[in-house]
Automatic annotation (TrEMBL):
This is AraC family transcriptional regulator. PROSITE patterns: HTH_ARAC_FAMILY_2 (PS01124). Keywords: DNA-binding, Transcription, Transcription regulation. The keyword Methyltransferase does not apply. InterPro entries: AraC-bd, Homeodomain-like_sf, HTH-like, HTH_AraC. It holds the Pfam family HTH_18.
Amino acid sequence: MLELVSVYLDDMDPNWHKEEEATLTDILILMTHGRVHYMLNGETLTVEKGDLLLIRKGVMRAGENAQEGAHQKYSVHFHLNERGHELFADAGTHLRLKARSYDYMKQRFAILTQQWFGQRMYADVICTGIAHELLGGFLQETVESRFTSVKLRLMSEVQNYIAAHYREPIRIEELAQLVDRAPNYVTQSFKEVTGLTPISYMHQVRVHAARDLILNTRMTIREVSDFLGYSDQAHFNRVFKKMMGYPPSSLIREVQRRS
């Protein structure tokens, strides 16, 4: 999705400022202290602690410390490939949001910076991986920013419950009782947040568990089907093929080739 170009830590420089010029890469910034005033294509934008800011390549950018003094921020500079441009097609010149997972994002930016400047063996592989993770996290946060914290918390409870009980029969009414909401609310909200209905999510968890069991145990497909709560193996086969694009029997052939 991206080619990593550089990583920076601006660390409490009282004289920090940036003359106006076009950005040569896409930039993802996390503010960790203070405030910065940016001018982006003529638009004034103030960024403060906890903000994530994506600035697109080619944007005319200038910046300076806010009046109260110096700031601290991490930034990662990168080129997007075709897939990346598709994902950020609606971002415009820039995109700012308040990081919901601020502490985690700060930790990952810090590790990225340590690896980048430490230049230990395979640091380039680690840095590229973390940069992808940060950009993926930013994309998730842009989606989740559309929902209230209450809805996200309730749907997280539903998700965790399904992950813990996926081998059991799960009914929408049961999930609705779990979060004290109407069944229609749970179905619609879960799909808004995850892109799947609760039942489709349950099948997805089951299918990934099935793949692991077939590849790494001596269980037959029927035994896996029964273990995961499917009373009908034919139904399990249909669900598996629909989600994975191939039948579970093809995994058996892969196991046989290994042995």
